Amino acid sequence: MSTTNPLSQRLRSLDFFRGVVMFLLVAEFSHLFGVFMKTENETITAAADFLFHHVQWEGLHFWDLIQPFFMFIVGVSIPYSYANRLEKGDSEKQIRRHAFRRAFLLLLFGWGLYCIDPEKIIFQFDNVLAQLSFTYLVAFLLVKKTPMVQAIAALGFILISDFLYRFFPVVGFDQAFVAGKNFGAWFNIFISGYEYGGHWAAFNAVPTAAHTIWGLMAGQLLMSKSSHIDKFKRLIVVAVICLALGYALSFFTPVIKRITTTSFIFLSGGWTILALAICYWIIDIKSYIKKTLVFTVVGVNPLFIYLFASVGGGDLFQKIAKPFTNSLLGGISPWLASFVLGLIVLFSLWYVCYWLYKKRIFIKI
Fold it and tell me: Is the dihedral of CA 162, 168, 172, 173 positive or negative?
């Protein structure tokens, strides 16, 4: 745990971007999104489904971008963290040891969140922390490489995954883009002994390494001496290229997040880079948004609030508040009672982050 201020010499747009992503994740744990699915208005229900739920298999919803956002943001942070540690006097060996320790802890936390089955200990590695343990370490090991090497490495991870899905020779798992009958399903069974619910693939960590590597490249660009406008233009160009590639590839490779197909990687990467560029433009270049505290307080303690909410923090606040909202509003409108309950839980989770922020407590690994 650190009690020093991590906001010094930071990219404000990155803090804002990370804060928005974490705020949305916290809102998910408040069960607020599910409330919108219970309205009788079909338009609201459809909008909520697009914004706050993953696609069942093929396609792309907004919520499918949240994990790429998060993994990309971690990549952007790597060169800043690396430079800060060098400035503080850490040796290359110390920085490298810290990176390996962080990767191990991310894997441990990712496994620990889902390791307890009602009857046994299980090993499942499809959640964001477990995936990030691999992508973070890969990106860190590329931090001193040239942009060309970094780009080739990202493309290599994408192509390896694509090749395995298309040409995997095991009978029963040789249908590249069919749920439960592809290489990803086989790999789940191989490492865990069973296929994961929802057909999420643990092997996704390999192709999604591209997101974190691209984040690393974006971070190094933003740290360069180029002008703000030049940096913004280059981000936009790369975003457009990725989007064009993604949509073009979708004619040959379906867009499937659950097994992270090549078209999904490029599409989600393009939208992610575009999102960073927009944040950079409105905050660091134009200063249209100057007060970002609402999101920043969540973004500076991302690991803590994710773990706290995942292990039942949101459920705890809900149990405390639900008797009051039901008593006061349940007779008027059960939907309104649920909506207000979600807002209270969301505020409570946010306030935990705010309290830590005010106390200058920033929990890191």
Answer: negative
Amino acid sitting at position 204: N
C-alpha to C-alpha distance for 30 and 180, rounded to whole angstroms:
31
- Residue 72 CA to residue 70 CA, distance in Å, equals 5
- Which band of pLDDT confidence, cut at 50, 70 and 90, is reported for residue 6? very low
Mean pLDDT computed over every residue of the chain? 89
Distance between CA 28 and CA 67 in Å, rounded? 13
Q: Give the DSSP letter of residue 116.
A: B
pTM higher than 0.70: yes
- Residues with Cβ within 8 Å of 345's Cβ and at least 6 positions away in sequence, in order, are 29, 30, 31, 32, 314, 317, 318, 321
Look up residue 67 and give its two tokens: 């994990």
Give residue-wise pLDDT tens across range 133-183.
999 999 999 999 999 999 999 999 999 999 999 999 999 999 999 999 999
